[in-house]
Specification:
Layout: H1 7-18, H2 24-33, H3 39-44, H4 52-62, H5 69-84, H6 91-95, H7 102-124, H8 129-138, H9 146-155, H10 157-175
Helix pairs in contact: 1-5, 4-5, 7-8, 7-10, 8-9
Amino acid sequence: MKEYEDWQEWLKEIREDLVGSDDFLEAAYRQIYEQDRHATIVRELAESYGNPLEALYRYIHVHGLYPPPELLLIISEFYGSYRHNPNRNSLEEVFFNGDKGSAKKRKKASDQILWRLALMTGARNNYSLSEVAAKFVADGFYHGEVSSLKKRHDRDEVSKAHWKELKKEAAEKKDN
């Protein structure tokens, strides 16, 4: 297995081998996107994420896309490496390059980005903070009570300032 630091380069190498080949995963992927002129761009999204699992999650849950075969193959290789040597590395070490706690840090950063996107959407649609928080919880992005999410928001100076600015911009657009 290649070194983890090179997973994006390894992804590109696998893609080069797959594109135009008779590989069954490649053939299935081509069928899915044969009418899509943006298929190349869709494939290259994976390289913009910090690890293969984040890329898989983003393809499916954020973009609503079928992940490219090269990404599935890399995830399979990483898992295979763990499965054949479970005492040598944890899954976190395999997928996150041995940086203990990095999954938690990335999840927190990802959660903050999702919350700020929800705030933007809410402000554009003239929702109250309570409505934004309720939808965020209902959509499964926060596993707690709406009141807890609002308290968390109130403690986060960056989110509070972001919400205030978004509401101000929305009011100005409404006045124009």
